[in-house]
Amino acid sequence: QSHPESKSIRNPNHKSQYNTIIITTRNPKQHPEITYRIALTHYVDITTPPRTNVIKDLAQYAADEKEKAFLLHISSNTTEGKNEFNDWVVKDQRHVLQILQELPSLSPPLDHILELLPRLQARYYSIASSSKSHP
């Protein structure tokens, strides 16, 4: 099975994907200024299928009118739009990166993607996840 063409996600105003950005964190001393890589790895959830409001916001960055119309349709409140959203996004568990890969004209700024994606939730350690409890 062939993979869709890879698509880079980076801020077009920067020469490198490792440029520093400022992000509001719970502990600014830990990462007061971070790279896009750190933000995408540690602060935002890139694996959960996006909600309809995120799809609607992304639509404005589609250069192809058919792709834009498709995104606006599946993010609409119509029964058909909701059904297509469920089929294309929810059932297939499509995350933002997959959507960007499948819609080649879609090119939102990385800063906006970071604003749209939900924050990662803290996962607290418990005795149930201890290797000492279950070797």
Q: Summary?
A:
The chain has 135 residues and is mainly alpha-helical. It has 6 helices and 2 strands, in the order ββαααααα.
Structural account:
This protein has helices at residues 36-43, 52-59, 65-74, 79-90, 96-102, 110-116; strands at 20-22, 33-35. Helix 2 packs antiparallel against helix 3. Helix content is 39%, strand content 4%. The protein is built from six helices and two strands.
Throw out a few tags for this protein:
disordered N terminus; two-stranded antiparallel sheet; mainly alpha; 6 helices; 135 residues
Topology diagram in text:
Elements: E1 20-22, E2 33-35, H1 36-43, H2 52-59, H3 65-74, H4 79-90, H5 96-102, H6 110-116
Report the biggest beta sheet as strand number plus sense, adding barrel if it closes.
2 strands, antiparallel
The end-to-end distance, rounded to whole angstroms, is: 38 Å
Global Rg: 18 Å
Helical coverage, percent range:
25-40%
Strand runs, count: 2
| Class inferred from helices and paired strands | mainly alpha
Spatial strand sequence of the major β-sheet: 1-2
* Global mean pLDDT: 79
What is the number of helical segments per DSSP (H or I, 4+ residues)?
6
Low-confidence runs: 1-18
- In N-to-C order, the SSE pattern is EEHHHHHH
Give the overall shape, derived from the CA principal axes.
globular
Strand content: under 5%
